[in-house]
Amino acid sequence: MGRVFAALNEPREHCAFVIARHDKHGYLLLLKDVDQKRYELPVGRFVHSEVKGEEYYEAAKEAAIQGLLAHTGLDFRKRPGRLRHMRFPAQVQEKMGKSSFFEVVLTDADSLHSYNHNVLTNSLSGEPKFLLRISQDHVGFTFQRDLQNAAAALQSSGRRVAKALLASSAVYTPQNCCFAGICNILGWYLWSGQEIPKTADAWKDAGFTFRPPPVWLL
């Protein structure tokens, strides 16, 4: 029994994904393979023994910042507060396994600037005046304004990542505490095949701390 417990607490590799969303252009996707049209989110990796505790999420955030820098050139090491840990409903977080997700909202001011423009890349989707330094692991980047389309593009990288992107619309923000936010939340439940909570207690058990949608919507 002691050996089993020790094995469960051995340090393992974890992933810290970054959902980067430009306020005008949409969600940032990295193109991994042109032929297969495989897209990915920026990701950092780190080693930790368990998925809990403040120390774990601090390590995850540091890995997310380093991964974003390595894959896109975006440097938030002096501005770590720009990255927000995505706290999903409990039943969603359980399905994320050893993966954490962080959100950062980009603006045109985050575009990279360099005297050597050969190392910088324009968006494949044609947004002007937004440049990144893409790593050799990827062939380019694009923005996708529509959440559903962005999630569909990530399917080839794994359903967990695609689901996390969709679930990000269910996380409380000042922008989604209205009818549109309710529709996003219900849309995620329908897309994932999970049963929609039908009582206030059920919504609370699912990890939601804001007011549930009206009964007539269910």
What does this structure look like?
The protein is built from seven helices and nine strands; from the N terminus they run H-E-E-E-E-H-E-H-E-E-E-E-H-H-H-H. 31% of the residues lie in helices and 22% in strands. By secondary structure, it is α+β, with helices and mostly antiparallel strands. It has two domains: 2-171, Alpha-Beta Complex (Nucleoside Triphosphate Pyrophosphohydrolase); 173-218, no CATH class. Helix 4 (147-153) runs antiparallel to helix 5 (159-167). The strands form two sheets. Strands 1, 2, 3, 4, 5, 6 and 9 form a seven-stranded mixed β-sheet that branches. Strands 7-8 form a two-stranded antiparallel sheet. 31% of the residues are buried. It starts with a helix and ends in a 13-residue tail after the last helix.
CATH structural architecture of the largest domain? Alpha-Beta Complex
Distance between the termini: 46 Å
What is the residue-mean pLDDT, rounded to a whole number? 78
- The total number of structural domains is 2
Helix content: 25-40%
| Content-based structural category | alpha+beta
Number of helices: 7
Overall geometry? globular
Strand content: 15-25%
User: What profile does the largest beta sheet have?
Assistant: 7 strands, mixed
What is the CATH H-level superfamily of the largest domain? Nucleoside Triphosphate Pyrophosphohydrolase
The poorly predicted ranges are 1-8, 172-179, 210-218
CATH class of the largest domain: Alpha Beta
Report the radius of gyration as a whole number of Å.
18 Å
- CATH level 3 topology of the largest domain: Nucleoside Triphosphate Pyrophosphohydrolase
